[in-house]
Design goal:
This protein is an alpha/beta fold. It has three domains: 221 residues, Alpha-Beta Barrel (TIM Barrel), CATH 3.20.20; 92 residues, Alpha-Beta Plaits (2-Layer Sandwich); 68 residues, SH3 type barrels, CATH 2.30.30. The protein contains ten helices and 24 strands. Strand 21 and strand 22 form a beta hairpin. The protein is globular, with a radius of gyration of 23 Å.
């Protein structure tokens, strides 16, 4: 299965994601996109602009995909050359004649062997009829299954519609695919299905992917665990005993309360000691100097963070004592020093529901979450399929509530998508 990670831009993030064993990496060249990759201006008259991507950032085994929409052919050609793109992804209103002319321009002088992929948005069976026009001139289709509901939320088209595709051009699935879709992807069958496109559901911010979340999902899609892990900082002399070669994907997490508002400093302290952390983030509207509102990514709460428990309790207590800032880990109970462990699956789903790009989401304090009446459910259908939580009601609407020590998060959901969770 081809695994394509799209919407990449940050240099360090590119290297980390490229090391996960993916097949394709996408770079967005649409100027109106929050993931827009800008060329570096040459400031030299007739000398063209050049790539902002360094040669050693992407492994040679990872194919580079450029995303365009209704762009001028000369702009596409320039970026194919500058970024050494292997695949051109077109997701505007391009016609077959334009694509054919583009191919003849690129082959063989600009980029020999370059492929073309056309995005088709599939909302009903009639949309698949568009494929007939493009089959002679493209190498792949990307079927975008995302759609906007009447209330503004994102949902997915019925995958069964793809049974109507009888063409011979291979295709990838895309459109708001997340961790909840892994089981459905693995079960999906079609003779021309070759891969998936993953993007916004795995972001901690636009163009920044959650590497740990991606690795777990990729391992599931490959149906095997990989031994490779994201590069971590080298331990200092006093942390050599804390390093480990074990697979940390199934380790539990702990929640840590902060006595002072030093969240960023404490977060960096744990990272410097080789531990993985998570801070729930959300977008706030902040007025700029010109008065125009800007979306700024900020922590949901500033006195809480989560740490993956790759050390035992004694090592964690010793590490916290070394930190210059006061904090305390949430314990099982007041009488015990045993840390409260959040199961890996529970934390995995919680992190997915905290994706700042998801709309119709609400955060609750731990006390507010406990006061919400609701029964445990398993989501059987829709974008959240496979997730668990409590089905709660607010203002005549239903939400899936996920709780962890210190807070909770709710996502709007249809109660018809849920089934009682069997104990």
């Amino acid at each position: 299965m081809i695994i394509k990670i799209c919407g990449m831009r940050d240099a360090d993030n590119i290297r980390e994601v490229a090391a996960l064993g993916i097949d394709w990496m996408g770079f967005d060249f649409r100027p109106d996109s929050p993931r827009y990759v800008q060329q570096i201006g040459s400031r030299a008259g007739i000398i063209p602009d050049y790539s902002s991507l360094k040669d050693n950032q992407v492994a040679a085994s990872v194919k580079r995909v450029g995303v365009f929409a209704d762009d001028m052919p000369q702009n596409i050609v320039t970026r194919v050359y500058n970024y050494q793109l292997d695949i051109v992804q077109l997701q505007g209103d391009e016609r077959a004649v334009m694509i054919d002319n583009l191919r003849h321009t690129l082959e063989p002088d600009i980029r020999s062997g370059v492929k073309v992929m056309k995005v088709i948005r599939v909302h009903d069976a009639a949309d698949l009829q568009q494929c007939q026009e493009f089959e002679p001139v493209v190498d792949y289709f990307l079927f975008d299954l995302s759609a906007t509901d009447s209330d503004g939320s994102t949902k997915q088209t019925n995958w069964n519609l793809l049974e109507n595709y009888k063409g011979q051009v291979p295709f990838l699935l895309g459109g708001a695919l997340g961790v909840a879709d892994v089981v459905r992807i693995l079960a999906f069958r079609h003779p021309q299905f070759v891969g998936v496109n993953l993007n916004s559901c795995f972001e901690s911010a636009p163009a920044v992917k959650d590497v740990a979340l991606l690795q777990t999902t990729i391992n599931q899609l490959r149906k095997k665990s990989t031994k490779s892990q994201p590069t971590k900082p080298q331990p200092t002399d006093n942390t050599e005993s804390r390093s480990s070669d074990i697979d940390t994907s199934q380790l539990p997490w702990i929640a840590i309360r902060l006595s002072y508002l030093k969240q960023q400093q404490i977060d960096q302290f744990f990272k410097d000691n080789g531990l993985e952390t998570f801070i729930p983030m959300q977008y706030d509207l902040v007025a700029s100097k010109t008065g125009k509102p800007n979306r700024v990514l900020r922590p949901v709460v500033r006195n809480l963070l989560f740490v993956k428990k790759s050390l035992d309790d004694a090592q964690l207590y010793n590490l916290m004592e070394e930190c210059p800032y006061s904090m305390f880990a949430i314990r099982k109970n007041r009488e015990s020093r045993d840390l409260y462990e959040i199961p890996s699956r529970q934390m995995f789903e919680f992190r997915q529901m905290c994706n700042p790009e998801i709309e119709l989401r609400e955060y609750l304090s731990e006390e507010e979450a406990k006061l919400k009446p609701g029964a445990p459910v398993l989501v059987k259908f829709g974008p959240l399929k496979g997730m668990t939580g409590r089905l709660v009601r607010k203002s005549k609407k239903y939400y899936l509530l996920k709780e962890v020590p210190g807070m909770g998060v709710m996502l709007k959901i249809s109660r018809w998508c849920c089934a009682p969770l069997e104990e």
